[in-house]
UniProtKB/TrEMBL annotation:
S-adenosyl-L-methionine binds at Q205, Y234, E255, D303. The lineage of its organism: Bacteria, Bacillati, Bacillota, Erysipelotrichia, Erysipelotrichales. The active site is at C330, C330 (nucleophile). The keyword Transferase applies. This is 23S rRNA (Uracil(1939)-C(5))-methyltransferase RlmD.
Length: 374
């Protein structure tokens, strides 16, 4: 399939390339990063299109919406994209008409004037719910009540509209300040048999099908016992830990983002999972404190952001001595760096399991299981 915007946004380096070729390129990349491990075939998708459940677009002064051109802030107008689903485009097209009709001014970053900076759309694919986040420069959006009513009437999948107020001159899209304009401020999705509330600022894996595969792969690599205490570090809204809670005695989830932490607590309540507890903390700080207390921990799941984990986190593993560590990564190069530190403290991994979470892009998700060697 041809990219409608001719790859100008720079996200899909591999679009147009045979999919099996993409998977073998990704496998080769992992083999270079993990020369001492057996790298398995990359787990791909049956239909590797329209998989993204989150998009952030900007509008230009002509009310065209699009993604930024690679390494610039020039907007590449788009009517479609091979990664986003049809509903996302329906909502964006409707917003385009309405922003014009309601004369919502578009932010001009050179003059630091205008209201609307970005629009973030988040989709819950199993429930067909959509969350719309309008990122504006001010806390008041004139006519927002009528605006939301008209939007919801035209696009019934929209369950909530949130105004994120960002008046800083920065390229960071979302600020911490937000106001619910319509609905409850979150959408609900189903994943691995559980129900999850997802709010605007929380992390949620962008590819539902591959995320389901990934979590089952985590489960199949784990050797869990009924009386185990396990940690889900960098836990987001609690998805992995809640999925594993049924197999163990206790799960402790650790997350730095406050919105995600609150979602995680609500998600556990909603799913009536009573053996999971969440801590709002930096994962390294939490691990170092736990190591000081010499807590009994059987398994650790870690799923850090692209930057990977820290030396102090890994050194606390040396003290806690869990039987197993499962390391999920969205950047195998930092995972390979961290693996060297794990080897130094006596934890080894034989296999690498790459998952194609981001088809057509050069990003790879990868999974390793580390065990203590005597
Ligand atoms: C790649 S996501 C993984 C989330 C979750 N495991 C999942 O599958 O949805 C990484 C998470 O780590 C959180 N995070 C980032 N830095 C952190 C830190 N220093 N300590 C704890 N959590 C952190 C982010 O907010 C995000 O929710």
């Amino acid at each position: 399939m041809d990219c409608p915007i001719k790859k100008q946004c720079g996200s899909c380096q591999y679009i147009g390339m045979d999919y099996s070729k993409q998977l073998s390129i990704k496998k080769e990349k992992c083999e270079k990063l993990f020369p001492h491990q057996r790298v398995h075939d990359v787990a791909g998708m049956q239909n590797p299109y329209f998989y993204r459940n989150k998009v952030i677009v900007a509008f230009n002064q002509k009310y065209e919406y699009g993604l930024y051109e690679e390494t610039s802030h020039r907007i590449v107008p788009m009517k479609a994209c091979l990664l986003h689903d049809e509903q996302t485009h329906l909502v964006l097209t409707q917003l385009q008409k309405m922003l014009k009709k309601y004369r919502v001014s578009i932010y001009d970053e050179n003059r630091n004037r205008g209201f609307l900076r970005h629009v973030l759309i988040r989709r819950a694919v199993t429930t067909n719910q959509t969350l719309v986040v309008l990122v504006g420069r001010e806390a008041v959006m004139k006519g927002s009540k009528n605006f939301c009513q008209e939007l919801v009437k035209a696009c019934p999948s929209v369950q909530s509209v949130v105004l994120n107020i960002n008046n800083r001159q920065t390229s960071i899209v979302l600020s911490k300040q937000e106001k619910i304009l319509y609905g409850k401020g979150f959408i609900v999705d189903k994943l691995c048999g559980l129900t999850f509330k997802i709010s605007a600022q929380s992390f949620y894996q962008i590819n539902h099908e591959q995320c389901t595969y990934l979590y089952h792969q985590v489960l199949s690599l784990l050797d869990l016992h009924k009386n185990d205490v396990i940690l889900d570090t960098y836990c987001g809204i609690g998805t992995i830990g809640m999925f594993l809670a049924q197999y163990v005695d206790t799960v402790i989830g650790v997350e730095l983002n406050h919105e995600a932490y609150k979602d995680a607590i609500n998600n556990a309540k909603m799913n009536k999972i009573h053996n999971i507890h969440f801590v709002h903390d930096d994962a390294t700080h939490f691990m170092v404190e736990l190591a000081k207390q010499k807590q009994k921990i059987d398994c650790v799941i870690m799923d850090p952001p692209r930057a990977g984990s820290t030396q102090a986190f890994i050194e606390s593993i040396k003290v806690l001595q869990p039987r197993q560590v499962i390391y999920v990564s969205c950047d195998p190069s930092t995972q390979a760096r961290d693996l060297k530190m794990f080897n130094k403290i006596g934890y080894k991994s034989r296999d690498v399991y790459p998952v194609d979470m981001f088809p057509h892009t050069n990003h790879i998700e990868s999974l390793i299981s580390l065990s203590r060697v005597s």
